[in-house]
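User: Before I run my own analysis I want an independent prediction to cross-check against. Here's the chain; please return only the structure tokens and, at the end, one sentence I can use as a sanity check.
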Amino acid sequence: MDLLPNPAIEASKQAEVQEICIVGAGPGGLAALQIIMETPQYKAGLWKPTAFEEREKAGGIWVPAPPVDNPPKTPLYDSLTTNLPHPVMCFQSYSFPPSTPLFPPASTVEKYLSDFASHFDMNQHIRLNTPVTAVDWDTASSKWKVKVRGDEVHEFDLLIVANGHYRLPRYPTTPGLGAWLAAGKATHSAWYRRPEHHGKTVLVVGGGPSGNDISSDMREVAKVVIQSVSRGTSEDIDGGKFKKRGRLAELLDINEGRVLFEDGTVETGIDHCILATGYQHHLPFLPSSLLKLAVPPPVPPLPEHLYNSSYHLFPLARHLFPLSKSFPPSRLAFLCVLRAIAPLPVMEAQVRAALAAFAHPEILDPTQEAVDILTHYEDLRARFGDNDLQIAAAWHVFEPQQQFDYRDELHALAGGRYAGPEWKVPQWVRDMYMERDVLRSEWRDLERRGEAEDWVRGVGEGGIEEWIELMHKLLKRADERHRNDEDQTAKL
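Assistant: Structure tokens:
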């Protein structure tokens, strides 16, 4: 179904204009604006969006800032590059320029987002330096009351929350951590920007992209770097200059710098600990009457109100629409609470589905959506038992291919032209996502050899097929290098 066919617009000139509030002008807020602006409703003057952005520039976490706030405005560190090839991670509506490095640095992504906003003339709808401080649902008027800086209050019909979930640091419950933090011997990676001297031996806790990057960075300035990874095994590399260990069990004596890992291994002489342990869902502008900050009770039945466990928002139909007794599910959408995905194209699909539900609330069947949530809960319960915290932590985490099925399902829900086969996720996207680590390893090898720029020069001028061909060439290179290594080993 189309959001609102042109004949319907002509017949609805008397309809009230609907104001749409977007919280945040990072990637999610920009995706929302771009897709709203291409709808018949917007072009007919029936939808009027406003995006409120607390910072001085659109772009979200990709806009750098010194780590002076608590928490910092962004966790962006100097060495950050994307961990996905940009043809896989970019907005479908806007590609990175030709010759862009396949795994671009953060500064390139920041410019890409700025150019994206300018290209689609979004800035007219963005209010910078305007944080949203409070949002509440007014039952009498069936509108959202949105307060921004300076106690300025506006009314909106529809609400899209796109403030991201990489702001409030998550600290583990590791025994002894409090004392190390108080002594200044432990910090969260949200404050990390570049490798600085913190002593001879540094412990990095976390095995995600930031944990891996920071562990690599710190080898430039520390004599020994120890990386603690859940379910990891002990391994000493480079003569013990880089040590991999399992989950951190306890931070012991501060003066001795002694720590204990789950496998019983003890390390001493640690001068500093960097916690690359992730971030919490944080929506401080929503009152407890609408969003309770707690782990939700076991289901069934579904709770009548929304919960924020800090790991997940619950219950959300399709990880997007809140099922709450407080307000209709078709009046609010939470963008990209998911993890372990290529976020930008997922955001686009979510916005299309959200706008379809805004225009046609009947496409959401609350009963079926509740059944789907309960089914997902039972699937996770089969894995984690009755541990509701583990269920919460896994709730918004997708298996690699699941995100692409999800995008297809959202486009089917949006209907109309989005239901056509041309909107299905292409097979090359699925394939290259699965090869992302191989591609990144090869790309880094090209960068070390000074060959990367030659590989991408002019690529993309003839369209996306050139990027697909380049990635296939990189995979072929990786295969050939692997075979050569095997041949050399066989000769020994």
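Sanity check: Residues 281 and 310 are 5 Å apart (CA to CA).
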